[in-house]
Design brief:
single chain, about 220 residues, alpha+beta, 5 strands, about 30% helix
Length: about 220
């Protein structure tokens, strides 16, 4: 009887040890997946900055070494000299680059850039209603009443994404002029960009959604 009780106790302890080990392994895997997703979101932030500056992933201007997908002519700097005075309020083209709905239904090279009225028209922050290609359905609650577009990593910079089995990160950009931000006087030429990026890991949850990390940054081209 004593031996049987001893065996039962050992069995219980062994099961508890195995369960603890499996739990720790799952935590470690989850941490690795979240770290991967965060790194990919960081990649998307940098890719969005290059998109704004009209650069390929290797630092060349898309106008000089044409990217596979090009933004419309005149909507991005084409040289170092041009970049110094392109993203300023006095450049009239800036007002037309950001679309209220992010270019829903338009050609790919017109999508992913939003203006200062987008959040109001969406009824919620535009990133909350964006298509992040992560298995989650989202939609604007305001006058846009549809899912708004995002840009896949490398679309306009030709940056390679070689992680097998991982969904490429995505981003969207909101453009804010001085009038959008109620900036006056000497800063009336100021243009700011709020970039929202989502990176993904390898894990898919029970609801079909991917492990993801969302990052935001504010970027100035000057």
């Amino acid at each position: 009887m004593t031996a049987l009780i001893f065996l039962v106790v050992l069995s219980v302890l062994s099961v508890m040890a195995v369960r603890g080990s499996l739990f720790e392994e799952r935590i470690a895997a989850s941490d690795r997946d979240m770290a991967l997703a965060r790194e990919n979101a960081e990649l998307a932030l940098r890719d969005a900055e290059r998109d704004i500056l009209g650069l390929r992933f290797d630092g060349q201007y898309c106008s000089a070494a044409p990217c596979t997908n090009l933004r419309p002519t005149g909507t991005r700097p084409v040289s170092t000299a041009d970049s110094g005075n392109f993203w300023v309020g006095s450049n009239g083209v800036v007002e037309t680059i950001g679309k209220t709905d992010g270019g829903v239904g338009l050609a790919t090279n017109l999508q992913g850039f939003y203006n200062g009225t987008s959040a109001s028209a969406c009824g919620i922050p535009v990133w909350s209603a964006a298509n992040w290609n992560d298995g989650v359905t989202r939609i604007c609650a305001g006058t846009i009443t549809t899912t708004v577009p995002t840009v896949a990593y490398g679309t306009f910079t030709d940056a390679p994404f070689t992680q097998a089995g991982v969904t490429a990160p995505r981003y969207l950009v909101e453009i804010f002029t001085a009038s959008d931000l109620n900036i006056a006087n000497g800063n009336s030429n100021k243009i700011l960009f709020r970039i929202t990026a989502v990176g993904f890991g390898r894990t898919t949850g029970s609801n079909g959604a991917l492990t993801s990390v969302t990052l935001q940054s504010v970027f100035s081209a000057l």
